[in-house]
Write a sequence for this structure.
């Protein structure tokens, strides 16, 4: 099995390669002054099994398509694609009759390549795998967060889903930790949300679990509810760190720590944010392919 990484997934790919004692496929990625991308593979992959590791923030879909085109021309035997982060995953259904369904269109384009199977790490909505015209499998980062809690002796008393969409992944981590969990409704006014906790957070260490953080509003809303509900301390465990703004200062008001993974690059200079690697998850996926 050969490992081929796109540009954004290169740091994670290096950790996966080190764990498996593999050398990633050598490729050239060049950006021209007008923004166009050129990609070429520097070695033969004919009749090889190739595992492509990709982290497609919004701007990285075209480079991924170009990488897959170069790979297809290399005539591999089988191709497996793993999205450590899948961009546009929140645009998986129409908001009204005239809105685009971005993920559906990108999935259709992806289906023009000879891909045998696609893996997703904490896809925003697992049901959206039905949009992809090839077999798909969702993989959870929960074991990574559980291992972090174990190594740092920081098991929370209560795990919290900040909204209904985070219920399943919160339940998964709660099962591993053998801890209770509760789901919040972020549509409620904060005062109603606090009262709906019914004392569950009083004096407890709480951990919010979610798949991604962007503006940070959802985490702040949940953190504020837990603090006002009497939580002793609040942490958050989030797979994909998409923050680009200045929401961190507000997050620090409610959170003791924010744990994210390396599906996306870590922002520098944030002492209260810690990053853990999902490389073991990717390694297990690759080993399962034989």
């Amino acid at each position: 099995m050969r490992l081929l990484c796109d540009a954004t997934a290169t740091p994670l790919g290096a950790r996966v390669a080190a764990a498996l004692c593999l050398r990633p496929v050598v490729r050239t990625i060049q950006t021209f002054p007008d923004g166009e991308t050129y990609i070429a593979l520097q070695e033969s992959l004919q009749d090889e099994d190739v595992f492509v590791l990709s982290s497609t923030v919004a701007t990285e879909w075209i480079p991924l398509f170009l990488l897959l085109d170069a790979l297809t021309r290399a005539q591999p035997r089988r191709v497996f694609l793993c999205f450590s982060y899948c961009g546009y995953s929140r645009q998986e259904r129409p908001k009204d009759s005239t809105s685009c369904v971005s993920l559906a269109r990108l999935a259709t384009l992806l289906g023009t390549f000879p891909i045998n199977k696609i893996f997703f790490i904490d896809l925003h909505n697992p049901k959206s795998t039905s949009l992809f015209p090839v077999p798909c499998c969702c993989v959870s980062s929960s074991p990574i967060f559980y291992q972090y809690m174990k190594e740092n002796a920081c098991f929370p008393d209560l795990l919290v889903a900040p909204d209904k969409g985070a219920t399943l992944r919160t339940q998964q981590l709660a099962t591993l930790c053998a801890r209770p969990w509760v789901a919040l409704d972020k549509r409620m006014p904060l005062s109603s949300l606090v009262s709906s906790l019914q004392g569950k957070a009083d004096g407890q260490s709480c951990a919010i679990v979610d798949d991604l953080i962007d503006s940070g509003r959802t985490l702040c809303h949940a953190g504020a509810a837990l603090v006002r509900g009497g939580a002793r301390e609040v942490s958050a465990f989030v797979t994909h760190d998409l923050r680009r703004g200045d929401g961190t200062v507000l997050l620090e008001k409610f959170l003791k720590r924010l744990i994210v993974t390396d599906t996306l690059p870590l922002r520098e200079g944030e002492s209260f944010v810690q990053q853990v690697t999902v490389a073991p998850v990717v390694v297990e996926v690759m080993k399962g392919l034989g």
